[in-house]
Design brief:
The protein has 17 helices and 17 strands. It is α+β, with helices and mostly antiparallel strands and 469 residues long. The chain has a single domain, classed as Penicillin V Acylase, Chain A (4-Layer Sandwich).
Length: 469
């Protein structure tokens, strides 16, 4: 017995000296965390302290986080003109100090989980990953505009198609919500995590996110408090304040701590940095009320009702915000946001009025009818966008025609599902079409230089019901 004890002490001393992590320590930090791969999605159940939630995320999704950071390191220089070192430096210079300790601890935990799997990432890598949208498309644009006025305009993305409805617009007169995420396929095909997070403080949340994100990012959240949240970006928005709280921090805080529509509005508008400016669609299943928060940097406006259908397709609505903070052309009927608005308004307010439920919510998010030309099509003017197929181009899009991006996944939920912490999710084009990289590169070889290493096929999987653990 004495020999065994001595050997155990020696082993423990060696482990401490060489920085090794023993199996019991890993088991303790992982707790009851789980991972399940299903129909293109990675479902993870995470629970505990902020540091442990982060560690579980980093450890269980290490391979995919590693790949996504490598994609960003490879792709961002051509997409934004700035390399990964620039984004790390911005994270250190002004982002990190504006992240509250709870989420700093979670970010540190993600880095530690990655390190436990032999990957050499730190908190700045994870911060830059979480802030990549607001940095690359808002901060960089603000720098460009400062150096040369107007040069950073129109860089804010026009991505995503969403709706939220209640009252006489839905089948059961309760809330139904849907969203599809538009982004570049090179990263969007990897936006495939369903995070079931049970934190020590705040509300249990179920959301989609990209690997390594502490927030949803494209934003689709079901909260135990009965709050439902999604959004679409404001096209052509300009404005960013480095002294205020990052959007990704406010979005996670709203998901975790909001118990009402007023809470969401307060959290998102407090110390707002203007990053990732959105039309936020919010529902409270306790009151059956829905709202839209249109949030810029200087301006914001809220619309709310217990009997309405609200849509989002990247168009701003408040005349003051449009004039002061965007370059959006409300009169350009051929733009993607306005064309999709035309189609979505018909679907939610006419065709499906009084019949909206989870089933036809899925149909809406996968719709490929071009309302401008009166036919089914694969282009950027349909709800389930296919920019890689579109020969026309739109003025508010800087990438030009035939760019490999569009709808990469979709989600739908309802008051009934939210009661049980559930949502439907679809990886790949919600309408069921596959994107194949090889044929695209054959037609458009100019993209191979900047995307050939990581752009891959994006298969459409079936709609899948996910439930919180």
């Amino acid at each position: 017995m004495k020999i065994k004890t001595t050997l155990l002490l020696c082993a423990c001393t060696a482990a401490l000296f060489f920085g090794c992590k023993s199996k019991p320590e890993k088991t303790d930090r992982l707790g009851k965390a789980t991972r399940e791969d299903k129909n293109g999605w990675i479902y993870v159940h995470l629970a505990g302290s902020p540091a442990d939630i982060g560690y579980q995320h980093g450890y269980l999704v290490a391979k995919e986080i590693d790949t996504l950071i490598k994609v960003m390191q490879y792709y961002l220089p051509s997409a934004s003109g700035k390399d990964w070192a620039f984004y790390r430096a911005a994270s250190q210079r002004f982002l990190w100090k504006k992240i509250n300790k709870e989420y700093q601890d979670e970010i540190k935990g993600i880095a530690e989980g990655l390190q436990a799997r032999g990957l050499k990432y730190d908190t700045l890598d994870i911060t830059a990953l979480n802030a990549n949208i607001e940095l690359s498309q808002y901060y960089v644009a603000a720098l460009d505009n400062k150096a040369k006025p107007g040069s950073g305009d129109n860089k804010a993305p026009g991505n995503c198609s969403a709706f939220i409805a209640t009252g006489s617009f839905t089948k059961d007169h309760k809330i139904v919500i849907g969203h599809n995420n538009w982004t570049d396929y090179i990263e969007g095909e990897r936006w495939n995590v369903i995070a079931d997070i049970r934190p020590e403080k705040g509300n249990h949340i179920l959301m989609d996110c990209a690997p390594g994100f502490i927030h949803s990012g494209d934003d689709f959240v079901v909260s135990k408090s009965g709050i439902l949240i999604t959004e679409t970006t404001i096209t052509g928005f300009k404005g960013f304040d480095t002294t205020r709280t990052p959007e990704f921090v406010r979005a996670r805080k709203a998901a975790q701590y909001a118990n009402s529509i007023d809470d969401v509005v307060k959290i998102m508008t407090t110390d707002n940095n203007g990053g990732y400016a959105n039309d936020w669609l919010i529902g409270d299943t306790k009151t059956n009320e829905v709202a839209k928060l249109e949030l810029g940097l200087k301006d914001y406006k809220v619309w709310r009702s217990k009997d309405t259908a609200i849509i989002g397709s990247n168009f701003p609505s408040d005349p003051k915000l449009i004039k002061e903070e965007t370059t959006f052309d409300v009169n350009n009927k051929t733009s993607s946001p306005n064309a999709r608005r035309l189609r979505m308004e018909k679907l939610v307010a006419v065709d499906y009025k009084g019949k909206l439920d989870e089933a036809n919510g899925k149909v809406i998010e996968g719709d490929t009818y071009d309302a401008l030309n009166g036919k089914n099509a694969y282009n950027r003017c349909v709800i389930d966008g296919h920019v890689e197929e579109d020969p026309l181009g739109c003025k508010e899009w800087s990438e030009g025609p035939f760019f490999p991006m569009g709808a990469v996944q979709g989600k739908v939920s309802s008051a009934a599902l939210a009661k049980n912490m559930q949502l439907w999710a679809h990886m790949g084009h919600p309408g069921g079409a596959d994107f194949l990289a090889a044929p695209f590169f054959k037609k458009h070889p100019e993209y191979f230089k900047t995307q050939g290493k990581y752009l891959r096929d994006m298969k459409a999987y079936p709609w899948t019901l996910f439930s919180a653990n």
